[in-house]
Amino acid sequence: MHLPDRLTPSPQQLSLISSNQNSGQRVVSIALGTPVTEQSNDMTPPCTPPTYHVGKAPVDTNDRESTAIPIHPKLANKDVQGNSETTVTPTAGETLAWAKLSPQLYTKNYQVSGSTSLGYAELGHGAWSTVYRATETPETPLSTLLTPPSSPVSLLAKPATGRVLAIKTPSRKEAHGILYHEARILTYLHCTRHSSDYVVPFHGYDATSKSVVMDAIPWNLEAHAKSCLENTRANFSTRTMFDPVCESQEWKSLATHLINGLVFLHSNGCIHGDIKPSNILLHRSEKGSSAAYTPLYCDFSSSRILDGSNASNTAQVQQITALTPDYASPELLTSLHGTAAIATAAADVYALAVTLVVAAIGESPFAGVSKEAMRLSMAREGKVLEFARQADQGTRIMKGKRVERCVKDALEKNMEKRFTAKQWQASVNTIFEA
Hints:
Layout: E1 14-18, E2 26-30, E3 36-38, E4 110-112, E5 114-115, E6 119-120, E7 122-125, E8 129-136, H1 142-146, E9 164-170, H2 176-189, H3 195-198, E10 202-206, E11 211-215, H4 221-234, H5 248-267, E12 270-271, E13 280-284, E14 293-297, E15 304-305, E16 315-317, E17 322-323, H6 330-335, H7 345-361, H8 372-381, H9 384-389, H10 402-407, H11 421-433
Antiparallel strand pairs: 1-2, 2-17, 3-16, 4-8, 5-6, 7-8, 8-9, 9-11, 10-11, 12-15, 13-14
Helix pairs in contact: 4-7, 5-7, 5-11
C-alpha cells in the first residue's frame, strides 16, 4: 500500500530515545496521535492552488491496502509497480496544493558506501532514521555498451562515479510514514523560489527502500561549534573572550542567513518543528564568498505545512514526531503533559535563537547539567541566556553585547510577546547595520 497523506492515528505516547551519539542529547520521540484542529493560521501557501488530477502513489505490498493519493500532474514518475508515466521535473516557484501533493520520486541508481562486512558509511542518525553516504551510479546508454571503443581502454583508469548522496533510511517500520511525509515537505519546498539558498538539496523519494535522497553534506553546525569551542579553550585570549567562539563575523553571517531562511520557510507556510545545530548543515561556500560556509536547514520529519485552503480557516495538523528539550520552547515542553505537542512558528523562532546561542558559546546552555529531569525543568523555565552566562564561555553573551541583543526578543518566554521571524529579521538587520 502507499502511505496515506495523513498518518494513521495511534495512541499518544512518549518515549525517550537516544539521538546523536556525538551530541549526547536526549530526544523525546512522540508517536503520531489523533490529528487535532488548529484554530487559526497566520501563514498560508503563497498563491491559490491550481486544479489537480488523480494518480497513483507508491505502493507497499507488505502493508494493508489503501486508496490512492492524488498526485500533482507535473510530479508523475514511475510508480513502485513499474508503470511508466511521463516524468516532468517540478518548476521552481510553482504553486502546489499541499493536500494533493505526493513526493517527487527518485528513479536513478546509487551505491551505499562501505560494505556489509565493514559496515556502511554512516553520516548520522536520529530517533527515526539513519543517514548513509552513497554514490549515484549513472546508467550507461545501451548504444555505448554495443559500440566498440575507438581507442584502447586503460585497465588502470579510475571508474566514473556520480554525485555523492545522503540516503536517509527508516530505522523501523513506524518511520516509513514519517520519511514519506518529509519527502512531501521537501518536494513542496523545492518547488518554491530560493529554496536552494536555505534548504538541503533534495533529489527525491526512493519508494523501494522508503528513503529520502539528498546531497551529502557531512559537516553541521553542532560539530562546527564544538570544534570552535575546543580551539578557543586551547588558545584562550582576553582580546576575544567577549566574541562568539566561531568569531564575530562568522556568527553574524550564520545568524543573518539562518534568520532569513526561517523567514523563507514561514513565508511559504512551512513550520520546521525541530531546529537545532545538528539539523543545520554547513555547505562550504564557493571561492570569493565572504562566508566560509552556507548554512542549510535539514531534517523536516517534524515539519508541517500550514494549508490555508480550508474554508473555515482550520486545518488538521499532525503532532511533532521528535524534539530535543534543550531547543524546545517552554510552551512546547509544557504541552508534552497535555493532549498534543504541535510545532508552531513561535517555537521555531525560539529554537533558532537557542541554536545561535550555542553557536556563540560552543555548547548547550544546559551542558553542565547531567540529570535529565533537571535539564528538562531548566529548559521549561525559558531562561536560556541566564543559564548560558553561567557557563565557562558566558562572557560571549554578556548583556548589551551584540549576540545578546540579537537573540533576547526571540527567546521571550511568553510566545505572544516573542518576535516573529520577520520582526526578528528586521531587528537583527538594524543591529548589524549600527
